[in-house]
Amino acid sequence: MRIGIPKEVKVREYRVGAQPAGVRQLVQAGHQVVVESGAGLGSGFPDADYERAGGVLVDDVAAVWACEMVAKVKEPVGDEIGRLRPGLILYTYLHLAANRDLTRALLDREVRAIAYETVRDRNGGLPLLRPMSEIAGRMSVQVGASCLQRENGGKGVLLSGVPGTRKGRVTIIGGGTVGAAAARMAIGHGAEVTVLDVNADRMAYLEDVFDNRIETLHSNPETIEDCCMRADLLIGAVLVPGRAAPKLVDEALIASMAPGSVVVDVAVDQGGCIETCRPTTHDAPTFSVHDVVHYCVANMPGAVPRTSTYALTNVTLRPALEIANRGVAEVARHSPLIAAGVNTWDGRCVEPGVADAHGLEAIELASLL
User: Fold this and answer.
1) The domain containing residue 171 runs over which residues?
2) Dihedral angle at the C-alpha atoms of 358, 363, 366, 369, nearest 10 degrees?
3) 291 has catalytic annotation
4) Which of 166, 257, 265, 273 could bridge 277 with an S-S bond, Cβ 3.0-4.6 Å?
5) Contact at 8 Å (CB) between 216 and 175?
6) Residues 240 and 292 in one domain
7) Does one domain contain both 255 and 177?
8) Which of 265, 281, 303 is at the close of a domain?
9) Cβ atoms 305, 316 nearer than 8 A
10) What does DSSP say about strands 342-345 and 112-115: parallel, antiparallel, or unpaired?
11) Which one is catalytic: 95, 197, 232, 265?
């Protein structure tokens, strides 16, 4: 199979769909990997590394998109939409429940789109989403602490405090991978940390693993309201796999927060769980609503591309090899965990969460094979 690795074009997206070691494994398995010149530079991988790995370097992006499968990091944007075509295997993050236009484009152009974020493991987990969730969770506290500085519009609170002053209060809505990673970083900063979730077992696990250094509360409108009003830093960490994130914090609640408080919505690529949030970029990462600073960058891990690319490609390579070795239809028939990643297939929507979000009919993938 011919596999294309294009240079990412999303604003300040420095990650790349395959590191040189992954290209080497694909080539050794008998496949041709076409890499756009400069694709890996943002992650610290020069073209020479890909050439040594056996990749074919090209300057023509059209040659990359002409491959049978294109492996990326972020969803197609801009001119990339026009390069979609029937039968193309697109292997990347998509987050289609929050993107009607891209969903329509993938369906109209009959793309076989496999979304990293809906591929499952045997325990129902999301192995291709997990590493980026861990990075984004850690970064949410890092960027939140920066936004709390007065020169960045924040209220001027140091999360750790100092003797004789109160610690910063961090509220995390969602106790999954993102929430746990954010809690770990917030504890490291010395903050007072509260995690809200609806799963009692998950809350017990978090209290145990963090040795009771956090407070856990059942997530409901009352506890969300109380914690948001007290928070210096509010982190949205809600995920419903394949579906748009539920809006758990409305604008009225944001308006009730103290001026200079900070919101970081890690769920923004799935529509966000905070009503006042909208996707931003690394060029203009923040905006203010009711004097509350909002940081809503949809590709947060792109700011640390070296770490992110290694973490991502460590988990995306094996499914890519399966698809290349056996063909996407064969894999979809016999590998239900990878098949769960298929969102569109030959003009049909096969991911129920995406279909529900956009009022489409969800077709069973098996019926199309």
Assistant:
1) 132-303
2) -100
3) no
4) 265
5) yes
6) yes
7) yes
8) 303
9) no
10) antiparallel
11) 95
Q: List all residues 6 or more positions away from 317 whose beta carbon is below 8 Å from its beta carbon.
A: 18, 22, 25, 26
Coil, helix or strand for 23? helix
Pair (271, 173) in one structural domain = yes
Q: Which of 232, 265, 269, 294 is catalytic?
A: 269
246-298 residue pLDDT tens: 999 999 999 999 999 999 999 998 899 999 999 999 999 999 999 999 999 99
CB 351 within 8 A of CB 343: yes
Q: Are residues 211 and 168 in the same domain?
A: yes
Contact (CB, 8 A) for 248 and 273: yes
Tell me, yes or no, if 121 is annotated catalytic: no
103/146 same-domain check: no
Q: Looking at the structure, do residues 176 and 269 belong to the same domain, yes or no?
A: yes
C-alpha dist (Å) from residue 90 to 6, 23, 112, 249 = 12, 17, 6, 34
Model confidence, pTM: 0.93
Condensed to tens digits (0 to 9), the pLDDT of residues 191-215 reads 999 999 999 999 999 999 999 999 9
User: Partners of 209 in the beta sheet?
Assistant: none
